[in-house]
Design brief:
The chain contains 23 helices and 36 strands. By secondary structure, it is an alpha+beta fold. The longest helix is centred in the middle third of the chain and has 24 residues. InterPro entries: 6-hairpin_glycosidase_sf (IPR008928), 6hp_glycosidase-like_sf (IPR012341), Glyco_hydro_63_C (IPR031335), Glycoside_hydrolase_63 (IPR004888).
């Protein structure tokens, strides 16, 4: 049934994706909500303002659900009678509070989701005792960057299992009929505790900014039924039921206690300015916690919560049911089919994911145990939960609104006034990175294509549209600076999706390929014009997503006019050229006009390969590695920065197979290929011999020839250098004992397998020894590409020094298994590597709930950074589909 819903959506027979889990986990302290004069995003709109201050652009919630344009939202709040505020959104430290930047200090898990959001489930773990807000801020604020972070479980709040498991589930009876089930479990074995469950319904504030004063409304309609109306979505009805007779907070009446207020800023509290009405955004919080009942009413508003309460005995549970639809309910029948709908949707979700396991497995499955299925399913569920309504217009934001014009000029995102987003977008992490990040999105679409091809294609196309992309051809980077530069991976992701469609359906989706190819042509030209200013095919680029990997901030200008020549920037452009060449060749088979464009990208690739390998290039034959280099004004010789990092491994990504059938089908292109070898031998002498046929008469287009490949792999596959038990490190471990120090400065790079020890790029990520899924995934792909060409004829010692020689496919599979092993359960210890330093994850009600962290400890695989970065860590789900498991592994 889920597959049919996807097909109906594709054919526009139905709109099953109109409603979904599209509400952000954090809207406060985002750039789009920052109207300060000094760009102090974290202090201008802190967490403490969020419950009282209306958002300008979009909403956040705990377990939120909304329509595509977020006219109206559903969400949950809880209260344990000990906290100073109700729990209606996730808490975390701001970028100026944590010893490693911003960090969410909650435990929540995205357990399940389907691509149409016909069924979704998450878990929030809510302490019974007072949540330690101030302690988390103060202790982390006292810790240095060399110390670990102080986490919620370190406070002892979960000791003796004194917490509630709050499961939030959604199911769709049909496209417009939304069911929500909230089940709270008391996990204590000896403590009775009260729990307040507050299902919320509210409208996004569109009336306070001076464009319209038209308010939507929510009214009491019948005994327990509410009616709401908004100009875009019309009338909808809302009803709540509990599983107990104790449905009212104060009496045993069966009537639900609805608390109404307005989604308006409490100006009196925040700015000492009288409120226009006693009913403001934090009214429900104040009524429940402080018993200020004059802050709410019982008849109408733009925000409402049902106040449901029960005292739970140890092991007892409490269920609250919500229904929200576009038709009026018969109150006696509103929940008659409720449980059956959930049973049906859960069964359909199980069937869908079982089909995913077998449909998308690339190698055939001998055996996939329950644990592997759990890892893959939760990784994909997290990916689907992190779809978010993203609303941001740069020009409107920079000028302010009619009711709130800007008092000071804004310089952030200069030259991006055209940018306007009003879309549901896949986010890297809906709490830590709740904004568009284009290179993250490209990686997200690789596992996303396993479950929803239509969504995948639309997301990749969206980033290239004219209201996103700059007129110069530059793709937007991320909200803090759309004009920054990320690695050019969009063409690669597009090619991956095209090949997946071809493999799984037999369809050549040339329209999709061609549409993005044309936009990438503009983007490629922007790269050539802006990042190769000297025209010598050696590229700059800045930090290129690798934050602190360099000895200094690579996005900053160097003193005295010196220029940084980047091994990764140059290699990414070779990679880009190879991907564009491959796309052009696919299109040329159907439309011959593309054959000459393919030749153009061949020339780009060859020229870049020549430059990076030239005497003044970035290759060092003595060290067998690629390095960034600095060129000072007036000098021809460059100074190499000998840091052994992933920067020097990225050249391996620039590898593409030219298959025999394609070359035979395109004789003009083959003729040009042969011409280069015959008449420009100086251009091709240092790169892979692409005229020599490999396996199946294929040709290899690669920056590195066999000699360089073997030299680089010797270091990469050395366990004392890059190879970890859990994947490839971002920085060689040998820098632990041999740190790189830049002559004449205090700058130093040493091996840091955990968190960053500097404030570079906010200090909240680390590329100096940690393991990142995205670049590991590309490396695995590259090894498979080289295997396609060399086959079993090329045997590599693995690991280095082991005297064990294997082919490159074996190495690719083994690195994949090492990465998957980060999430695997150890049957003997009961723990998983990513959480093994946290004993709480061994407990019965924790061990099967996974976190997909941003990156992982280079030695232990402990999860680090953002805790729900399925933005690219969901790639583990794709890795599971790519290798063959049996009972022995």
């Amino acid at each position: 049934m889920e597959q049919k819903r996807l097909q109906d959506s594709l054919e526009r027979k139905a709109d099953w994706k109109y409603w979904g889990t599209y509400v952000s986990d954090r809207q406060w302290a985002t750039v789009r909500e920052d109207y300060s004069s000094d760009n102090q995003t974290w202090s201008y709109f802190p967490h403490d303002h969020a419950r009282s201050r209306a958002y300008r652009w979009s909403e956040d919630a705990l377990g939120g659900f909304c329509n595509r344009f977020q006219n109206v939202c559903l969400g949950l709040a809880f209260w344990n009678e000990n906290d100073p505020i109700i729990k209606e959104r996730l808490f975390g430290l701001g970028g100026n509070e944590g010893n490693h930047g911003e960090d969410c200090k909650e435990h929540y898990f995205y357990v399940d989701n389907t691509p149409t959001h016909s069924y979704s489930k998450m878990l929030y773990k809510y302490p019974m005792n007072e949540y330690p807000y101030s302690k988390l801020v103060s202790v982390n604020g006292q810790r240095s960057k060399q110390e670990s972070e102080y986490e919620l479980e370190d406070t002892g709040i979960f000791d003796n299992n004194e917490y509630f498991d709050c499961f939030i589930e959604y199911a769709k009876a049909d496209q417009e009929d939304i069911l929500c089930r909230v089940t709270v479990h008391n996990r204590s074995t000896d403590k009775e505790a009260p729990i307040h469950v507050l299902p919320h319904l509210w409208f996004r504030n569109t009336w306070s900014w001076g464009y319209t004063d038209r308010r939507p409304y929510i009214h009491k309609h019948t005994h327990n039924q509410l009616v709401s109306e908004e100009v875009h979505i019309g009338k909808r009805y809302y009803i709540v039921q509990t599983d107990e007779s104790e449905q009212h907070a104060d009496t045993n009446s069966k009537e639900i206690n609805y608390l109404f207020t307005e989604n308006d800023t409490n100006t009196q509290k925040l700015f000492n300015w009288p409120n226009a009405s006693p009913y403001v955004k934090d009214g429900i919080n104040n009524a429940v916690v402080n018993k200020w009942m004059d802050c709410v009413n019982h008849s109408s508003g733009t925000k409402v919560a049902a106040h449901c309460k029960k005292t739970l005995k140890p092991g007892e549970s409490f269920t609250v049911k919500i229904r929200f639809a576009n038709y009026e309910f018969d109150e006696n029948e509103a929940f008659a089919d409720f449980d059956q709908v959930f049973k049906d949707r859960i069964r359909e979700a199980d069937e869908f994911y079982e089909n995913i396991v077998y449909k998308n497995n690339d190698c055939g499955i001998d055996f996939m145990d329950k644990d592997l299925k759990l890892i893959q399913r939760q990784s994909l569920a997290g990916l689907l939960w992190t779809k978010q309504y993203y609303h941001f217009g740069v020009n409107m934001w920079k000028n302010g609104d009619p009711a709130h014009p800007r008092a000071h000029p804004v310089h952030r995102n200069n030259h991006w006034d055209h940018f306007y987003a009003n879309d549901v977008i896949s986010m890297p992490d809906k709490w830590e990175f709740p904004f568009l990040a284009s290179w993250d999105l490209a990686f997200q679409m690789i596992p996303m294509m396993l479950v929803d091809i239509e969504w995948t294609k639309r997301q990749l196309i969206l980033v290239t549209r004219e209201w996103y992309t700059h007129s110069s051809g530059q793709f937007p980077a991320y909200e803090f600076d759309f004009g920054d530069v990320n690695p050019p991976v969009h063409a690669w992701a597009t090619l991956e999706v095209y090949n997946h469609i071809l493999k799984t359906t037999g369809v050549k989706d040339l329209e999709f390929l061609e549409q993005i190819f044309h936009k990438c042509l503009l983007n490629f030209t922007w790269w050539v014009n802006k990042k190769d200013i000297k025209g010598n095919n050696i590229f700059e680029g800045g930090f290129l997503g690798l934050d602190n990997i360099g000895v200094f901030d690579r996005s900053s200008s160097l003193p005295n006019g010196a220029k940084l020549q980047q091994a990764d920037g140059t290699s990414w452009m070779a990679f880009y050229s190879a991907n564009m060449l491959k796309i052009a060749l696919i299109l040329a088979k159907e439309r011959r006009a593309y054959e000459s464009i393919a030749t153009k990208f061949l020339e780009h690739f060859i020229n870049i390969a020549k430059s990076i390998n030239s005497r003044n290039g970035l290759w060092n034959n003595d060290d067998g590695f690629y390095f960034d280099s600095i060129v000072s004004p007036g000098q021809t010789e460059s100074h190499q920065i000998k840091v052994y990092s992933f920067v020097g491994l990225i050249p391996l990504f620039a590898a593409e197979i030219l298959d025999y059938e394609t070359l035979q089908a395109l004789p003009k292109f083959k003729e040009r290929l042969d011409w280069f070898v015959r008449y420009r031998p100086n251009l091709v002498k240092n790169i892979a011999p692409f005229t020599s046929p490999g396996q199946n008469k294929s040709r290899l287009l690669s920056i590195v020839n066999r000699e360089k490949l073997e030299m680089i792999l010797k270091k990469m596959l050395d366990e004392n250098w890059f190879l970890s038990e859990n994947g490839i490190r971002s920085l060689s471990k040998h820098h632990l004992h041999e740190p790189y120090r830049m002559e004449g400065t205090d700058a130093c790079v040493t091996y840091l397998p955990a968190e960053s020890d500097s404030g570079m790029f906010g200090g909240n990520s680390n590329w100096r020894g940690t393991i990142w899924l995205a670049v590991n995934y590309l490396m695995i792909q590259s090894l498979r590409t080289y295997y396609q060409y060399y086959g079993d004829e090329l045997q590599i010692e693995y690991p280095t020094g082991s005297e064990n020689f294997v082919n490159l496919e074996f190495i690719a599979d083994d690195i994949s298994k090492r990465l998957i092993g980060i999430f695997r359960e150890n049957k003997e210890t009961g723990s998983r590597k990513f959480s093994q330093v946290k004993p709480i994850f061994k407990n019965e009600h924790w061990k099967d709930y996974l976190l997909f962290n941003e990156y992982f400890h280079g030695d232990t695989a402990q999860g680090l950074g953002a805790s729900h970065q399925t933005g690219w860590t969901a790639l583990v789900g794709k890795l599971i589909s790519e290798i063959k498991f049996n009972k022995s592994n």
